[in-house]
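Ticket #4471: structure export looks truncated?
Reporter: QA, pipeline team
Priority: medium

Steps to reproduce: submit the single chain below to the structure queue and open the exported record.
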Amino acid sequence: MVLSIITINYNNAQGLKQTINSVVGQTFKDYEYIVIDGGSTDDSVNVIRQQQHISYWISEPDGGIYNAMNKGLLKAKGDYVLMLNSGDYLIDNYILEKIFENIKLRDIVYGNILWTDTLRNYEESYPEKLTFQYFRTNSIGHQAAFVRKRVHDIVGLYDERYKIVSDWKFFLLAICKYNFAYQYLPVAVSVCDRSGLSCLPENAGKIIAEKSEILLSEFPSFIDDYNDMDRTKSEFLNLKNNTLFKIKNKLKGFIKRN
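Actual output as written to the record:
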């Protein structure tokens, strides 16, 4: 079996139905489908029961998003794992076939995400080269990342101590600490809305706090150097902007006199 697709859900029957339909409609069939429900009280369980292509499912209270994702990982038997949460869906019926036709057996293969909200749709593209500097403030989307199961065997499950950035921590460690090989495919893989915890403005402070704690814990010798680099860059930009401002003012004065 090539791929394990894991969907977690809680009281989102309509979104779950959309996610399931995008999976079972794929032309690529070498996958198992795992659904972890957090004990929903809406119609979610009926949605699951009506679908014959789900390999494993459970509905019970959990300890949050990452606890539910870990439950799915512990059941996964595929070579690769894709986390596609309830409400997110694959961009078309052919995308998995396209991915696995072009995959070069890297440990992490990732594509782009098409984000949607009430105002607009836009595609978020990720860099072909991933660096520690990039991960300080960014990540790749788990909804468009195919991760070899053995990466989790070495890096571990998602850290349930954190409520928002444990997927970021996993990718940071896998690539910047354990040096797993990765591959970028410049195609949109999944469609996601911006209602998740990491997208809400009120969680910005919590995200910064969690990331700072992880960076200090995992890469303590790097932090001072990168903070110094940030200060130097900021000072340089301020100097550059001030210099340009002075030059523009001098040019304006020269033009007025002539």
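Status: closed, not a bug. The export was complete when the record was re-opened. Leaving a note from the reviewer for reference: Residues 159 and 166 are 5 Å apart (CA to CA).
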